[in-house]
Amino acid sequence: MSAESMPDDPTTAARVARRTLLAGAAAAVAGAWIWHELPSASATQRATTHSRATTTARPLATLPTPKPWLPGAGEVDPSVKLRAVQFLEALGTWSSGGVGVSAAQHRVAGLGYDPNLVSQARSLLASAPAAVTRVTDAQYGGILSSSSSVLVVLEQWLRRADGSVLHRGTTVDVRLVGARPKWRVTELHPANPGPRATVSAQARAVLNNHRIILPFAARADIESGHVHNSVLSCLTTLAHDYVLNVSVVRSGHPIYVFGTSRLSDHPRGRAVDIWSVDGHPIVHPQNRALTIAVMRRAALSGPYQVGGPVLLSGPRASFFSDQTHQDHIHLGFST
After folding, report:
1. CA 94 to chain centroid
2. Tell me, what DSSP letter sits at residue 94?
3. Calculated CA dihedral for residues 31, 255, 141, 53, nearest 10 degrees
4. What CATH number is associated with residue 208?
5. Distance between CA atoms of 156 and 118, rounded to whole angstroms?
6. Helix, strand, coil shares of the chain as percentages rounded to 5?
7. How far apart are the first and last CA of the chain?
8. Residues 38, 170: one domain?
9. Which domain holds residue 103?
10. Can you tell me the distance from the alpha carbon of 71 to that of 90, in angstroms, rounded to the nearest whole number?
């Protein structure tokens, strides 16, 4: 069970926020995918570009080759992540003749998944002759003995009928239950960042910082204006010393702390997860010294909660560690 917590708040504003989050959860269950789409670009270019481009694409000679995501050292249960990832890779990758719902159902059924799940991720099935989906990161949103949430950060390249290639991405909260011989995928909850809005100076600083690498959904979260400045200021401070690979900010994360009835700080825009620092994945045991340094540095920048693969102590923040946070650093803020 995750140790993320939130203070009790009986105010009217808190109740309104709760109803808003529940409505968002219902939309995600229904399969409402909101994509943040950009022309094809390098990771650095994506990190420094902050405009939405939903209709343009950069012509490319070929699609990228499929590159299956593989778990690294230190994973709590690699089989759970692989089960979540391989469903989305199969769903969102096809060649000539593979477009459409029926073909997608055939692909996932051949790997032992329920073909009915395809309806929860139909936006991956754009009308394009060919597509490639690659997973950037797979992170636990929660892991218990018989159930799990895996947050899959992915990119997709679509070759369209005119020969151009559209590059886009999202984050999907994949829910699984324990089963034999393999864990079973039961639900897909795509990210829903919301529309772009006028944002604060702190948000613009993060969006333009090449040392803060944001995946598509996380960037759209910040562009929506719903991420608290305390989160953004902490990221900017940490980026003075480290290159940060962010996994999840607001959307694409469970509404509730997994396995509990407590609202998570993420959907309220009060948390951020970091999966890699200076190119070194948090999950890898050899990177513990760096991870500890970042956790301690982050604790000086305002979070009330700092979680990660190592249980630390100190007066500045409430440190915690559990199975869920072996693969990322979680920073939670009270305001």
Report:
1. 23
2. B
3. 50
4. 3.30.1380
5. 16
6. 30, 25, 45
7. 24
8. yes
9. 28-190
10. 17
Judgement on whether residues 126 and 149 belong to the same structural domain of the protein:
yes
The size of the chain, in residues, is 335
232-261 tens-digit pLDDT: 999 999 999 999 999 999 999 999 999 999
Element (H, E) at 135: strand 130-143
Q: Three-state SS for 85?
A: helix
Q: Are 209 and 239 in contact (CB under 8 A)?
A: yes
pTM confidence score: 0.84
DSSP class of residue 46 equals H
Query: Checking DSSP bridges between strand 184-190 and strand 212-213, what pairing results, if any?
Result: unpaired
- No. of helices (H) and no. of strands (E), the chain: 8, 12
Q: Which amino acid is at 327?
A: D
Residue 116 zone, left/alpha/beta (φ > 0; ψ -120 to 50; rest): alpha
Asked whether residue 151 falls in the same domain as residue 270, the answer is: no
Indicate whether 21 belongs to any domain: no
* Backbone angles phi and psi of 256, in degrees to 5: -105, 150
Among residues 198, 204, 267, which one has the least CA distance to residue 236? 204
The answer to whether residues 78 and 186 belong to one domain is yes
Residues 6+ apart with CB under 8 A from 312: 292, 295, 296, 306, 319, 321
Q: Could you tell me the pLDDT band of residue 335, with boundaries at 50, 70 and 90?
A: confident
217 and 253 Cβ atoms separated by less than 8 Å:
no
Residue 111, amino acid: L
Q: Is the pLDDT of residue 136 over 50?
A: yes
Which of the four pLDDT bands, split at 50, 70 and 90, describes residue 28?
very low
DSSP codes joined into one string, 169-233: EEEEEEEEE--SSS-EEEEEEE----------HHHHHHHT-TTEE--HHHHHHHHTT-S-HHHHH
